[in-house]
Design brief:
Layout lengths: L2 E10 L8 E9 L2 E6 L6 H8 L7 E6 L2 E2 L11 E4 L12 H10 L7 H13 L15 H9 L9 E5 L7 H16 L3 E6 L6 H7 L8 E5 L2 E4 L1
Helix pairs in contact: 2-3
Length: 228
């Protein structure tokens, strides 16, 4: 089995006193949907930030594609699409369409008609076509969450890390999210979901088996992580 992340004896704390992780070891498959669950405050978001290089200063080994994260010279986000739990941490544009355009072009590349078509399709998939040109500050929390999730189909080739993806979503939004994850599995690509609402994703596992599912479910406990 091919792994995107290999974590060995990972130790991390913000103040050098209270360890968030101490001796954490974990392998995350490159394909399939891997879920990490745990109570609020267990360290799921901190793990996301460690995996994406946004938090540094860890001890032990944390490898992406068999290369230590500390050795990466260029942005780790070239390999990963990270959708944060915090709404303000993802939304960068004045409208949903502009936000997706920024994600596509990273402020430097030239926009194209083909990219515009992809954005329209993404907005349809998450149900925000009618409000894609409405100012972000006029959107509800659920609409902002859908705008964040609209980035997913734009980057099917990247590994997804999604922190609490169901937050602020209604039942329709959750079904749209599950559909996107199903398409990810069909494309033989992978994603990591961090959530405390494991039950919402149970049907996803029943779906995956015919498509060479390679993920797993883990739970974070005090300073540790175990397979469930």
């Amino acid at each position: 089995m091919e792994y995107i992340y290999k974590i060995s004896n990972l130790r991390f704390s913000f103040d050098k006193r209270d360890n968030i992780f101490y001796g954490l070891s974990l392998k995350i498959p490159l394909r399939g949907i891997t879920i990490i669950t745990g109570r609020n405050g267990a360290g799921k978001t901190t793990l996301c930030r460690l995996l994406t290089g946004l938090v540094k200063g860890y001890e032990g080994s944390l490898k992406l594609h068999n290369k230590e994260l500390a050795e990466y010279k260029r942005s780790i986000l070239e390999h990963i699409l990270y959708v944060k739990q915090d709404l303000t941490g993802n939304l960068m544009g004045l409208t949903a369409n502009e936000d997706l355009q920024i994600w596509q072009n990273r402020f430097v590349e030239i926009d194209t008609p083909h990219k515009a078509i992809l954005r329209k399709k993404a907005c349809v998939l998450v149900g925000i076509s009618p409000i894609q040109d409405v100012p972000v500050w006029e959107l509800s929390y659920g609409q902002k969450r859908r705008t964040m999730l609209a980035t997913l189909p734009l980057f099917m080739d990247k590994y997804w890390i999604i922190d609490e993806p169901s937050a602020n979503l209604d039942n329709i939004g959750i079904k749209q999210l599950i559909y996107l994850l199903q398409q990810k599995v069909k494309a033989r690509c992978g994603a990591l979901i961090l959530t405390h609402k494991l039950k919402l994703f149970e049907n996803l596992y029943a779906f995956e088996q015919p498509y060479d599912y390679a993920g797993n479910i883990f739970t974070i406990t005090d300073n540790d992580i175990i397979s469930i």
